Batch of 3 targets.
Target 1
Amino acid sequence: MKILILEDEIYNFHLLRHMLEEIDPEYNVVGPITSIKYGIDYFHMHSDVDIIIADIQLNDGLSFDALKYAPQHVPVIFTTAYDQHALRAFEYNSLSYLLKPIDEDELRTAVKKAMRLIGKDGNTTDESSVSGSSACSIGETMRNVISSPTPYRQRFLVKTSQGERIVLTDSIRYIVSESKTTYIKLLDGGSYAIDLTLDMLSEQLDPHVFMRVNRKFIVPLASVCETRNLPNGRMQIILHGAPSPDIIISREKKQPVTKWVVGSF
């Protein structure tokens, strides 16, 4: 069985492939498809895919734009770190919607559900049972969306020397881009590289809690200790804890940053 993975974070792709190989070593796992353009090109050239596992956010946009060109009969298992696209996912033959970090048992259940749909589990699947299964998935997703307090990212899965770690956004001191790499800096002093740009993170994080204050830094409001005026109309942000990184705000950015800080009190 051929399983295609759309995922722009290479570590997450390897983790998914490992989980799938644990479920069944005979699975032919293909990928990663890391961009919409790459996905469209792949679907124009290949139609022999049994199941698609797709991260919703790719490095150049939403995977929905690539899946428009996928074979219509192929079931899709969506993975994402945040769930504001849950309802739209079911426009693309979606059977399951898994929130990161992916649980292997949930992935196993989703793959088995997809196999029943395409008739590769040794059982016959009639139209009524497929319809019921899809309705159940939609109902479960609706309940998750209704009960979810926010559509924004609440956690990251980062790689460590021992394996991986779940990082909650509440534990972030600041996020910085250095030498074309994005780092999450934590309140406990930890630092982790992630495969996301500041532009992407700006869309995924709650703007009431986090702000991209300049080209290099995203900071949470809770980390801001004080602001200091500098010559030429600029401003410096001082964070709680020591040492505080050198965060300089331009004259053009000073007003919206100040409004964000003051308006939250």
Target 2
Amino acid sequence: MKDIFIHKNAILGNNICIGNGVTIEEDVWIGNNTQIGNHVSILRGSRIGENCQIHSSAVLGGIPQDLKYKDEYTLLEIGDNNIIREFVTINKGTISKGKTHIGNSNLIMSNAHIGHDCVIGNNAIIGFSVGMAGEVVVQDWANISGLTAIHQFSVIGEHAMVSGLSRVVKDIPPYIIVAHEPLRFTGLNTVGLKRRGFVSAKIDELRAIYRVLFQEKRNTKFALELIENEF
């Protein structure tokens, strides 16, 4: 191993594999069995769980790209079993929420950027070169395809799928596929739901709910009342 810097106050678990040119600053915690590739930088305030794979040249816990950040103490929290591919950047939080949080078992593909104060759930897929502005929420099992740009404060619902090259400037409801420009509902994420073990009856119910919401052109308040009463 060459040119590795590990601050004396960093806390590292057992059986951690560290590549060449790695920097691990003070006030960093890394869990057991995590693999860290070449030239990775893990910066102050980062908390990384167990069994993670962090590939070459990723930068974790960088200073937020937000003018309101004034060097206050904030964190980046990353759970267990995450795969973080090459050149991914994940910024820590600002005074707004105090931390950026990544759950468990997510795949974050190469060149993706996750901005300050974002919240990523569990089992999400963040595609190649996805750009995620600050305070975005991505719920469990969401799948965001490559080269998608996501506006700050957007929420992407659980089990939703966002097609590649999308421009997300509004919230995405759960369970659906969105595509086109401007972004719009194109159907239920049936394949994804079947893979997750949703039974046919539940998928049919979800399809009926979204027909009321998106296809029958009803007043939204009336549509929500109808869904609550009928389903």
Target 3
Amino acid sequence: MRMPLSRSVALALIAACALPIAGCANNRSKGDVPYVARDVGTLYATAKRYLDRGRYKEAAQLFDEVERQHPYSIWARRAQLMGAFSYYLDADYTKSIESAQRFLAVHPGNRDAPYAYYLVALGYYEQISDVTRDQKITQQALDALGELSRRYPASKYAADARLKVDLVRDHLAGKEMEIGRFYEKRGEWLAATLRFRKVVDEYQTTTHVPEALMRLTETYLALGIPIEAKKAAAVLGANYPGSIWYERAYKLMERHPVTAKSGA
């Protein structure tokens, strides 16, 4: 399950990356691009034309050709980014990330570096799967978004990156909750408690915290630590008093009141 993406944000960036140049298109067959020597203007213009027509894979391949045939041209630098963007639109996120990272390796201080970092982050972000699957890509997306925000906090991409960081963190917290609920159903109270505790400690701003506090109330009671259960319920009541999770925690504590003896 992919998270929703404001593709218009990325699409709007093409105007900033495209260089208006004149040139005539050469005909070629689909698939891999054979090496046919062409001047840089013709290559770039043809690639841009394919991009405008929605032929993203072909556009990306021709932008790669610009870099391959004219590596020392000023066009090669721009073609790297345009190729990364074209691969992104073609949903070939691995190649998009590789192209953007190659740009950053060669031109780390370039003025378009923030955009390259943004493309890397988007490439990982688009691959985020549902919480029942491995979350390696999710963590990579979080790392890439965080790096963009740290390096270029004032850039026009940082605000979108920060929004996506919140969504990714919520996704990771959801994974912890899913594992915690699995352990709780099996009666593995300590393992479940550790997962719910992690959500409360590391993902405080996510939507999963109220349920995590209620689940902690349950698991602490199951572990025979009612005083900790009372603390979790109290935090839940103080921060989310109108939630269904607090109602459940309150009823639990009513059935298991903490006495001086049990709290000792």
